[in-house]
């Protein structure tokens, strides 16, 4: 006789695993070690637990819900990306489940597992990370026919379409722009290291390429972790240790805003003493004093097209063209935070 008082929370506690792991075992999903699976099955048997057949059957039914995983909802770039994705989802009569990973790989994994447990029809994920564990998990899900589209993420799987901004080109053009203004002491405040950000790494590569082409040997790079506060601290440390620097390339506009504050607090003027340029093209950067020069990404369009590509795959419209990658070029927007070196 079924024990009506037993649920998957108690099974998870008894087996010493997460609720999502129990759910994957019950629904015969991949991604669980044999030893763990056997332990969970033994607990299920010992407790005489019988999963509800109607609930279990949801795994094979269409829910018209898409999971969207982002790195930082407080960043205006991601907020506009979400708006684009949501707009397309609403047009196509899909619901959207949003999860925020805070640039932490373990949290990204939890987001994806939550979506899997919630039985979404597909997953749209924007993340710069290329961490092996998460890539392996995504590859495994794709092999079991869960439709996935990733943005700003490098993953070697033809079943997973990718959309990305050309971050190497953006880093190169941002640094070259400063070089063309006459600067040769150019620093870079880079993005996130914890999540192994591909976007950050490519922007660093672009910065280095531009300096190398110009014969500038010294590359001055400090971490800003895609955080306004961390970038403010990094800028202060950078200018204390390298007072010769006349220009700074920030890997995001939010970091450039933090840098602007640090520069002003140190009694320096922008752009008379220091020229600064960011990346993203967020509205807030245009409202600063002075307005910040930026490499603008089409964030709304990236969200919209990412969702559109995923929905086409879900609705069996997918042909080879829908699996092709989409690359977005960034646009240089010149503002008053940069000037020629006098």
UniProtKB/TrEMBL annotation:
It comes from the Bacteria. Gene3D superfamilies: 3.40.50.2300, lambda repressor-like DNA-binding domains. SMART domains: HTH_LACI. Residues 8-60 form the HTH lacI-type domain. It holds the Pfam family LacI. GO terms for molecular function: DNA-binding transcription factor activity; transcription cis-regulatory region binding. This is LacI family transcriptional regulator. The lineage of its organism: Bacteria, Bacillati, Bacillota, Clostridia, Halanaerobiales.
């Amino acid at each position: 006789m079924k024990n009506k008082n037993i649920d998957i929370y108690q099974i998870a506690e008894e087996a010493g695993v997460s609720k999502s792991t129990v759910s994957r075992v019950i629904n015969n999903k991949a991604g669980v070690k044999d030893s763990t699976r056997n332990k969970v099955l033994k607990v299920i048997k010992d407790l005489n637990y019988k999963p509800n057949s109607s609930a279990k059957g949801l795994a094979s039914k269409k829910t018209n819900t898409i999971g969207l995983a982002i790195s930082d909802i407080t960043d205006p770039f991601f907020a506009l990306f979400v708006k684009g994705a949501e707009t397309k989802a609403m047009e196509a009569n899909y619901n959207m489940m949003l999860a925020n990973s805070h640039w932490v790989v373990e949290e990204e994994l939890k987001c994806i597992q939550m979506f899997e447990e919630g039985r979404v029809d597909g997953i749209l994920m924007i993340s710069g990370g290329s961490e092996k564990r998460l890539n392996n998990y995504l590859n495994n899900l794709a092999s079991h026919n869960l439709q996935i589209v990733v943005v700003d993420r490098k993953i070697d799987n033809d079943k997973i379409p990718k959309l990305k901004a050309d971050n190497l080109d953006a880093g190169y053009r941002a640094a070259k722009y400063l070089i063309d203004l006459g600067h040769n002491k150019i620093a870079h405040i880079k993005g996130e290291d914890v999540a192994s950000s591909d976007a950050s790494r490519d922007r660093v590569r672009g910065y280095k390429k531009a300096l190398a082409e110009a014969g500038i040997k010294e590359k001055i790079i400090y971490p800003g972790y895609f955080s306004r506060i961390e970038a403010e601290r990094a800028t202060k440390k950078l200018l204390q240790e390298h007072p010769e620097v006349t220009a700074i390339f920030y890997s995001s506009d939010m970091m450039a805003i933090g840098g602007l504050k640090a520069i002003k607090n140190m009694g320096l003027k922008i752009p008379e003493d220091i020229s600064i340029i960011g990346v993203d093209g967020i509205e807030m950067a245009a409202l600063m004093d002075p307005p910040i020069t930026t490499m603008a990404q089409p964030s709304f369009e990236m969200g919209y097209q990412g969702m559109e590509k995923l929905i086409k795959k879900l609705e069996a419209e997918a042909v080879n063209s829908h699996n092709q990658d989409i690359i977005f070029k960034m646009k240089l927007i010149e503002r008053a935070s940069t000037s020629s070196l006098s």
